[in-house]
Structure formats: structure tokens, C-alpha cells
Amino acid sequence: MEMLGWVLAVIAAFSIGLAKGGLSMVGTISVPLLALVMSPVQAAGILLPVYIISDIGGLIAFRRDFDRRVLRTLVPGAITGIGLGWATAHHVDDAQVGLIVGVIGLAFALNALLRSRVSASAKPPRWGAGSFWGTVSGYTSFVSHSGAAPYQVYAQPLRMTPMTYAGTTTIFFAICNAVKLIPYAMLGQLSAHNLSVAAVLMVPGVLGVLAGLWLVRRMSPRIFYGFITWALMLVSAKLIWDGI
Fold it and tell me: Less packed terminus of the chain by CB within 10 Å, N or C?
């Protein structure tokens, strides 16, 4: 890669670390950033090992802060979505998937901002909604590591505390990323070149985990949810723009 590619790759890896440290929506910009200098498929292949290593740091940090009920409603659907992504891997239009994810995320973010008082009341985990949004999240996560927006639609109205939210999010996507290793390897996305680049990017990824953990422990719930809502809106707008 040229210098610009390395600069963008380091920023992308650091953003992944921030996401695993608790600032979940930040990591969504990783693939779009690298896609500026390479194909989205290659970008996803390079970044998956960085996600895996960052997941380990996040799992250690949040090993006691997560909601098992939320994970039970999401994980089966997510695995189904990853399977669908694998089955349709050769027929996927990245721009169309990004456009759909962007519309969903933008609609949710605008609704959360316009109806903040209503959204302040917590909703309980539900199997139907969890299975649906888990499937969508698993599918879009497989295609371009962009499962955070559909996940947010389900998880944010549950109004978990910032630490529980961060831990549940980290564990959910750690499971997704571990499952994705098999189809990514079989599709040739974990090539020697991609793995060598990913090895260098693991350092900023781990540093990002530490920075994200430091930040999320010091944020109030109001600031935390405001941050992820605005981040979701900005990333969704970028996905819509790219899709169009």
C-alpha cells in the first residue's frame, strides 16, 4: 500500500479499537475509510483479523459487564445472517447493502433525536425483534463489517447502562467475527498479503481499545447515547451517499 493507504488503515484500525473499547459506532467507519484506496472486499478481509484481536481486548475489559438476555435474543439470528451472507457472497452488491443499512440507521437516529423523551423508557429484550435485527446485523457484518447500525436499532431502546451496553455489544460482535473467520477463509479473503497488513494494524487496534475503555468509563449515559446516535447518523449518511 502507498502512504495514504497506510494512514487510512491505521485510522481504521484505531477506530475498530475504540469500538471494542465501548464506542461501538466508531468502528463502522473502518471499511468505508479503507474502501477509498482499495475494494471493499479486500478492506473487509484485511480488517477482520484486527477485529478479532481487538475483540480479545474488549472481552477481557467487559467480561463482567453484559446482558445475557440480550445476547440470547440476538446471536441465533446473527449466525443465520452470516450464513446468508456466505451463501450469497458472489451476488452481493456492496453499494446496495450499504444503502439499505444507511437508510435503516439514519431513520433510527433521526427518530431517537426527535423523540428523545419517548426513547428514555427502556424496552425489554424480545425474541422476535432480536432475531430479525440479529439476522440483518449478521448479514451486513459479513458483507462489510457494518452490522452496528441494525444492532443499534434493537439494542439502544433497551437503555442498558453504558458499561453493560458496551460489554454486550463487544461480546455480540466478537461472536459474529469469530463465526465469520470460516467463510472469509474459504472465500480467500484471509490471504498472506491481507494477514501481513493486518498484523501491523493490530497495534493501533489494541491502543484504540484502551482509549475507548478510558472514554466510556467517564461518559454519562446521556452523553454516551447522544454520541452513538449522532455517530450512527453520520455513518448512515455516508453509507447512503456511497450507495447512491
Answer: C
